[in-house]
Write a structure and sequence with these properties.
- This protein is α+β, with helices and mostly antiparallel strands.
- Helix content is 57%, strand content 13%.
- The chain has four helices and three strands.
- It has a three-stranded antiparallel β-sheet with strand order 1-3-2.
- A hairpin with a 6-residue loop joins strand 2 and strand 3.
- Helix 1 crosses helix 4 and helix 2 crosses helix 3.
- The chain is elongated.
Length: 125
Amino acid sequence: MNLSKDLMAASSTPLVLGIIAEGDTYGYEIVKRVEQLSAGALNWTDGMLYPLLHRLEQQGLLESRWRVASDTGRKRKYYGITELGRKTLLEQQQQWQVINDALNRIWHEMTLNPQRSDTNGCQPA
């Protein structure tokens, strides 16, 4: 299934903040964690992730530092969440819960009453 770019963009900030809130990590690990947590439904690319990480860092939601990886000896840029990032994550989690609950109520109602018309006499699409 092709997911809407708008939905992907809207969900990317809370996903990344949530993953980084688990502990400092670097880009490739974030991409793999998104894929793992979504059971393969979300496949991100570097081209999508790194501009987001830079934007979140500029907004003060993340901080970064270079570290040498113990397994490879290579330098990697690790990202950590800031207090502002944690606050933003909590706010976004609450907002997404409201949206999710509303959609579930609407879709449940549509399933129970598929022929229900509104006050203008319009049938659901």
